[in-house]
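Q: Joint fold for the lines below.
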Amino acid sequence: MFTGILGRKVGMTQIYSESGESIPVTVLEAGPCPVLGIRTVEKDGYSAVQLGYQDKKRPAGNRKRSRSSQASRSERGQVTNRLGSKRQEKRAGQVAPTPKAECEPQKFIREFRGDAPDEIEIGTLVDVSGFHPTLADLPTLLKELAEKNKIDPEDVGWQAQLKKKKPLDYRDCLSSIMSVDVTGTSKGRGYAGVMKRHNFAGQRASHGVKKVHRHAGGTGMSAAPSRLFKGKRMAGQYGNATITTRNLKVAVVDQENNLLLVRGAVPGPNGGYVVIRETNKFN
Amino acid sequence: MSQQLMNLVESSYRKSEVPFFEVGDTVDVHTRILEGEKERIQIFSGTVIARSGSGTREMFTVRRIVAGEGVERKFPLHSPRIENVDVKRSSVVRRAKLYFLRDRIGKAVRLKERRRV
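A: Joint structure:
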């Protein structure tokens, strides 16, 4: 089954748990995401669900001056059958038109691998209701899970790991997502030196060092091998890359405002688009 | 839009009524602490020498002298563990951060009292 949602990073703040601990959280605005397409093994060779996030502007009157921030004809055609094309007219009556989401064109579109559950069709809105907060009520939740599955509460989660027992898989007992992987585009730092990019130490400030205080130093050996090994860490483009932060605990789910608060930091600037998936890392 | 959402999130974790105190005040900070199973209230009294941060992240620093040694504790203002902040005495101060108190010992630590009208 596919498990994920698209969203936007709002910013970081801190919240307090009931016991008074302060929790560093990233606020993510997630969904509601219309399902734009469903890929199936029979038709496409793989199964996936395509989601969209945020409505894209339609071009203003003058088409010639339309911008990339405005939905093109093909983008509008992706979400509706009402656009009208010669091909469609020609095939009218012979072939049933492909179902479309019939929503506004979307700004951010991604596919999530996995089968679509029965309740999801093209046009369904996916929201944060599939997520479950872990931090505030994890102990009670674990207890409930253990009771439901008739196991010793101490055999749940990380405690079982300590005892080298097979932990209870949350997914067997709970259909909601408690831990997520968040993928975003990291902040671009341009062409950065080795100190910033790879945390090199640089060279000394004095003792005869001349104009090479932030340099990498030697990069290779001598006549043997008389070449540089691949993957040598050097200066270069840093940031503006796709980065995934794995296994972030869901702290709060606010269905009313489409907010998801996750514990910890998420790549990218505030306002950057993120892909939120159920984690594939189980500790 | 982002700022509105942040405010929305933060407002639900902010105390509706924050005890009023100022830099330079001598206060009793009532904190709830867990001792084993039992919860009790611990009081830390001293002078507020700084307030920092804003929103849910606001913190304040309380300084006192214990056995000749300066002790400072920094409390999150909106933490549910902070039960109450009791103002015992206010003083005349002319700056926002009273870090100069750290360099003073004995009588010099005293601040001039300010009478509230």
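Q: Anything notable?
A: Chain B is about 10% helix and 40% strand. The longest helix of chain B spans residues 2-11.
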